[in-house]
Each structure stands twice: as C-alpha cells, then as structure tokens.
Design goal:
By secondary structure, this protein is of the alpha/beta class. Helix content is 41%, strand content 23%.
Length: 232
C-alpha cells in the first residue's frame, strides 16, 4: 500500500475511532483522526486527503453538515459515512449531502476495508496537484507550506498560520466565490460574530500583502463571502 494515501477519519467515539484508525494503518494508510465535525473541517483544510470517513452523529457539526462543507471545497474526494442508523431516509440524506457510500454499524473489518479500497479506485489518488504547495499569483509566489509570499524582487513576506490558511483556501478556489462560513469553520472551527470580525481584519492584511500585483484581487461578494481573482 502506498503511504501517500491519506485518510481523514472523523469519529466521536474515541475507542471505535482508535480501532478503525489502527485497522487502516495496518493496511498502510496515513490516517488523521478527529473526534468532532468542527475539528474535522479544520483538519481537512490543513492537509491533502484522498478519502474522508465520517461518522454521522457527532457534536459541534454532524457528519452530513461536515460533508456539505467539504463538498464546497472539494467536489471529487470520496466520502464514506459510518452510522448506527439503517433507515432509508438517512441514507438519502447522506447521499444528498455529497456522500459516496454508507456503512451501518456494526460492520466487519473486511467489508469496511473493501469499501475504502473501492472508493479509492474511483479517483486518481496520485494526482500530482494534490501535493502542490507553491502557487503563482500573478507576479507573486505563495509558498503555502512555509507560510510566505515571494515577490518579483525576491523579497519575502512571512505570513502567520491563519493568514496562510485563509489565502490557501482562496487560492484553491480562485475565481470562485468562497463563503464566509466555510472560511470561518475551516480556519477557526466556528463562525460567530467575533471570529467574523477577525476574518475581515485578516482579509484586509492579505489585500495589502498582494497589492504589489494589481492583477491579483480579493473581492468582497456582499452577504456571501470572498473571491480571489487573478487577471492574467
């Protein structure tokens, strides 16, 4: 098994989560385990994953809501739901939220691993764009891994972790509207008034850092969110 395959596992039952994580690691997967939906969305924004395995009933953000948020950021990544429920309406809700498969607890290790492998076969898990960390924003380079901007005169601007996270989200969704709630939940894990004001401050700072190239703009979409536009 190729260790490059990273799995996001979000399960609020710590003991079950640990068992599943151990099973996946024994198959050679790299697994990030989160115990609630808010933490799961933050982790999804911090790394590149090839598949998401989400419990449905979780605190802070349930699995269906988390899947909808993930789908706003990535339309293709496979999502497998784990749930104690086996009702048709719940399955319909899961697929409507963007899920690709649905496994009811309790389940066998063999079936679980086969479902994971089947979902991974549907996507190109070795897409080189998954590992991209340096982006060209007009005449400015953004090194997302090292949190810095590199200007055309070779000067560098060091970013804070939150500045880099916000800019990375914008870059991954360039020329598309990114909603405020997705940015707030992905970076802060919540979307209340106070962190909303913090986001506006960070956006103002990022505009200042990018002003060297007038082709690169972060536009406010009133009442919705932001759009990073690069006019070549």
């Amino acid at each position: 098994m190729n260790t490059k395959i990273k799995i996001l596992l979000v399960e609020d039952d710590f003991n079950l989560g640990f068992v599943i994580q151990d099973q996946l690691k024994s198959e050679g997967y790299d697994v990030a385990l989160c115990t609630d939906g808010a933490e799961g969305l933050q982790k999804f924004n911090e790394d590149h994953f090839q598949i998401c395995i989400l419990d449905v009933m979780m605190p802070k953000k349930d699995g269906f809501t988390l899947a909808k948020d993930i789908r706003k950021l990535d339309k293709k990544i496979p999502i497998l739901f784990l749930t104690a429920k086996n009702q048709t309406e719940d399955k319909v809700t899961g697929f409507s939220a963007g899920g690709d498969d649905y496994l009811t607890k309790p389940f066998s290790t063999e079936e679980f691993l086969l479902r994971v492998k089947a979902l991974l076969r549907r996507v190109d898990i070795f897409d080189p764009s998954e590992s991209e960390t340096v982006y060209q924003l007009g005449a400015i380079q953004f090194d997302s891994e090292n949190f810095k901007l590199i200007y055309s005169n070779a000067e560098e601007k060091k970013l804070t972790k939150k500045e880099a996270k916000i800019l990375h989200l914008l870059v991954q969704n360039k020329n598309k509207v990114l909603t405020r709630d997705i940015v707030l939940n992905a970076v802060w894990g919540q979307d209340d008034y106070f962190v909303g004001r913090s986001l506006d401050v960070f956006i103002t700072k990022l505009r200042k850092y990018l002003k060297e190239d007038e082709r690169v703009t972060i536009n406010n979409i009133h009442g919705v969110g932001f759009k990073l536009e690069i006019n070549d």
